[in-house]
Design goal:
3-stranded antiparallel sheet, single chain, 18-stranded mixed sheet, alpha+beta
């Protein structure tokens, strides 16, 4: 890599005027994809090409034409690879009347960071053009920083074992994303939810801070509450980032949500949403489309979450719910008023025998937000907890969501209108998302 100090040394050797000052700024090269230009505006300007073997790059950075003998001032220097510690061969052309010098960073090790220290030598007053260019640089550097490499994880929530529970993608954001980038990333991840954790203040950091912003996106839309992606987010901060706090607060569309460490998992502090009885005829078409002639014992609706809760007959057992074929493809045509955004099917639990006892079972379907069936759903249990607490007369319950992956939840209904939901999490993927 070429350093600015070498340029200054070379200029002196060629007896350039000592009063010259140099301004460094950088812009993406829009003429030849994949390279960066480094421009130096000053009276005596060099134009540099560091990719003599690349004809495309040469064409996009043409050398100035020779001048007539009557107009002296064009002098050419050649320097070999040996001068730059194994860097590429270079050609320099000095054209005093020029206003720009361009350097092509054409090899894999090139990066903006290699040039940051060079800007320290700039001392001369900047012209309006240079000021504008510098302003453009700051904007472009911000854009380049956003082109970024985002830390991203996948965590299976409400399970202690990998490849069970509900997977959620978790992105850590150092800076705000462009308006539509959240949705693009969520669509790319193609999981039921992608969570975005962001810093609330410039001085925050993911290891020491205890309060963060949190948003959730399905592949098609942003949602106001997601329990399993909140659990996954807390697991990433606690277990991968090694956040030092025992309790984290997330600022979300559903208000402040807390997640705290527990001996056997993470406890989420979530709102408790009541479900009100609904006449069967009001939802008959939707229920018939979804589950056909399956016997229904009770129907409730949660206006806060726009979820329809359908309790199946107590004559059915867990295996029936697990094997039930649910038609989600036609639900959007049957219910398109916007009143329902999620369908909960639930069943009373069975006494413990050879298998672990659960107070109730459930499955959850949300094609209205792009999720045919969600494997394990924290937000659905903010409604289920309220319903089954009243039905069973219990505050402490265990629940199992009977999707193909399955997941367990430990529930504690509080007296302040909230519910604690505890679950485990297994982080199964860690990587970098480039955009």
């Amino acid at each position: 890599m070429i350093t600015h100090s070498f340029f200054l040394k070379t200029f002196k050797r060629k007896n350039l005027p000592s009063e010259n000052k140099y301004v460094l700024f950088e812009v993406p090269n829009r003429e030849y994809k994949g390279r960066l230009s480094v421009l130096y505006p000053f009276p005596e300007t060099f134009r540099l090409s560091s990719c003599p073997g690349d004809q495309n790059a040469k064409r996009s950075t043409p050398f100035p034409p020779p001048r007539p003998a009557a107009k002296p001032g064009l002098e050419t220097f050649a320097t070999g690879r040996r001068n730059y510690k194994g860097g590429p061969p270079l050609s320099w052309i000095w054209e005093p009347s020029a206003r720009l010098r361009r350097h092509w960073l054409s090899f894999p090790g090139s990066s903006l960071s290699s040039w940051e220290s060079a800007s320290e030598v700039t001392r001369s007053p900047a012209s309006p053009e240079v000021k504008q260019a510098t302003s453009n640089l700051e904007s472009l550097q911000t854009q380049l920083a956003r082109k970024m490499r985002l830390p991203i994880f996948t965590a299976d929530a409400f399970t202690a074992k990998a490849f069970h529970g509900n997977p959620a993608a978790v992105c850590l954001l150092e800076n705000e994303l462009d308006k539509d980038m959240h949705q693009k990333i969520a669509r790319e991840m193609n999981l039921s939810e992608t969570a975005f954790i962001r810093k609330l203040h410039p001085t925050d950091n993911f290891t020491q801070s205890s309060c963060f912003g949190l948003r959730w996106f399905t592949p098609t839309t942003e949602v106001s509450l997601c329990g399993h992606a909140t659990l996954a987010s807390a697991a990433v901060l606690f277990h991968k980032i090694k956040n030092v706090n025992s309790t984290l607060t997330f600022v979300t569309l559903s208000g402040e949500l807390k997640a705290r460490k527990a001996e056997d998992g993470i406890v989420l502090d979530l709102p408790l949403y009541p479900a009100h009885p609904l006449d069967f005829q009001e939802a008959a078409d939707l229920i018939k489309t979804a589950i056909g002639d399956t016997l229904v014992q009770d129907i409730c609706y949660s206006p806060d979450t726009q979820k329809l809760l359908v309790r199946l007959s107590d004559t059915y057992d867990r295996s029936f719910l697990e094997g039930l074929k649910v038609n989600t493809q036609d639900l959007l045509q049957v219910e398109n008023t916007g009143k329902v955004r999620g369908l909960i099917l639930t069943l009373k639990g069975e006494p413990g025998g050879q298998t672990q006892a659960f107070d109730f079972y459930s499955r959850y379907f949300a094609p209205w937000v792009g999720v045919a069936e969600d494997p394990v759903t924290g937000s659905a249990h903010t409604v289920l907890s309220s319903y089954w607490s009243q039905q069973l007369g219990k505050k402490e319950m265990r629940a199992f969501q009977c999707s193909q992956r399955g997941g367990e939840l430990v529930i504690s209904v509080r007296t302040d209108g909230r519910v604690d939901i505890r679950g485990g999490a297994a982080i199964v993927l860690e990587g970098t998302l480039t955009t």
